[in-house]
Amino acid sequence: MAAVADSSNPDSALWHPSRRAFTAGLVLVITLVAFEAMGLGTALPTIVAELDAQRWYSWPLTIFLAASALGTVLGGRQADTRGAALPLLIALPTFAVGLVIAALAPDMTVLLLGRVVQGISGGILIVSLYVLIAQVYPERHRPAAFGALSSAWVVPALLGPLVAGLLTEHASWRWVFGGLAPLVLLGAVLLVPAVRRYGGAPETISSPRRGTVLAALGASAGVVAVNWAAQRETVPAWLLGAAGLVVLIPSLLRLFPKGTLRARPGLPGMVLARGLLAGLFFTAQAFVPLSLTVAHHYSAATAGVPLTVGSLGWTVGALWQGRQRRWRREQLVAGGFALVGLGCAGLVVALPGWGVAWLVFVCWFVAGTGMGIGISSTAVSVLDRSPEADRGFNSAALQISDMLGQAVLVGAGGVLVATLATSTDPAAGVLVLDLVLLIAAPAAAALVLRSGRAQPR
Fold it and tell me: Which spans are transmembrane here (predicted)?
């Protein structure tokens, strides 16, 4: 029987003695996952060059995303039927094994195998932690818990690319993977006491959802196809992407709460909002470095600084929402969309050649703040609305919506920018894309607010 956090306990807080080890383990594990994610992009050119696998450049990222979709569903299913303890305690050492496989990889095939192991275990890990947040922390402290989770990305965002670059240049890219494995195991040790206490099977177990594993495989295949198509400007690739969507949509009908794709008010609307918010933000962000280098002649290093600034804003927003009590979660998510839209408006006047380039640093901090508020608030809202027996399924749906929102919208944005690019200005389509996103953000905010008004008081 799962232990339930007492929301009436005035001492219930992130660093209360009974939760201190779990909070520390949570922050450490997410920090390590973030370091690996931030560092891989820096090391990837060297990796593919050393393994003579330039044509596979995008696959360490794509295969991880697809495997994460599968792991997310499997982790949610196990958490709802057997509790979050077992999947989490399996996922942590398995993630470390995946890091070691990648670190020792003699060729790209073995490296991709390591990324598959990391992706599946990483998906299980995140869902299990979401379920445990609901079990470990009283309801009123969950926003602060998600704020702490987001803050774990700050140091990796600031130092991850630098550390990975130094390791790659002066030691080996293999340390980007292998150096983290022992620390992941340390995180597992910190989490064990709370996992044993809170991570048992739920008191009520929902009926097993048929076809979820098959749907997860379909979603993974769809993610691969959509990402592959987004990275290639050929008719066969686009046809493959369309086929991926054909497989993806019926899979999502099984993996999402009923009514998600129709934006039904309540929990389904929040799951959809998560994907839209992630898709809008990361689509705009994907083309910031391109515009700064092409239109304003920034160096590659300087052009990446706005991404770090956005990460800092994300943390500020996540921590701020953790202290809010008088705003409903729908209002906070709508505010997140509004700030992302404001950031896109700033890009419209900052990124073109005639624009004021320095504004990008301000506007992307604003957009990152909106993400910190909105992403954390969707997670809090979904957990608050989920029966105990469905927390794993709904947390998995939230993560899949996030991943697919990015995959589909970034891919569509890439097609638009590539279509409008010219030989003299490869970033010509970015202005049009940012205008589209600027319009979409307030429309999504209005949708979220309407969803909130439709809910019974």
Answer: 21-44, 56-74, 86-106, 112-133, 145-167, 173-192, 213-230, 236-255, 267-288, 300-320, 332-351, 357-383, 403-421, 427-449
Neighbours of 120 (CB within 10 A): 25
Amino acid letter, 162? L
pLDDT given for residue 201 in this prediction: 60
Contacts for 137 with CB less than 8 Å, ≥ 6 apart: 5, 12, 14, 19, 144, 145
Instruction: Please state, in angstroms and rounded to a whole number, the distance separating the CA atoms of residues 359 and 351.
Output: 9
Which residue is listed with tokens 């301000």?
A: 362
Given CA atoms 278, 279, 284, 289 in this order, what sign does their dihedral have?
positive
131 φ/ψ angles, rounded to the nearest 5 degrees: -65, -40
Sign of the C-alpha dihedral computed for residues 427, 428, 429 and 430 taken in this order: positive
Same domain? 96 vs 135: yes
Tell whether 3 is covered by a domain: no
- Looking up tokens 């022992």 gives 182
Which structural domain, as residue segments, surrounds residue 320? 265-457
pLDDT single digits (tens) 71-113: 988 888 888 887 788 888 889 899 999 999 999 999 999 999 9
* Report field, pTM of the whole predicted structure over 0.90: no
The C-alpha atoms of residue 268 and residue 276 are separated, in whole angstroms, by 13
- How does pLDDT run across 267-323, given as a tens digit for each residue? 999 999 999 999 999 889 888 887 888 888 887 667 778 888 898 899 899 989 888
322 and 238 in one domain?
no
Give CA angle at 13 (11, 19), nearest 5°: 100
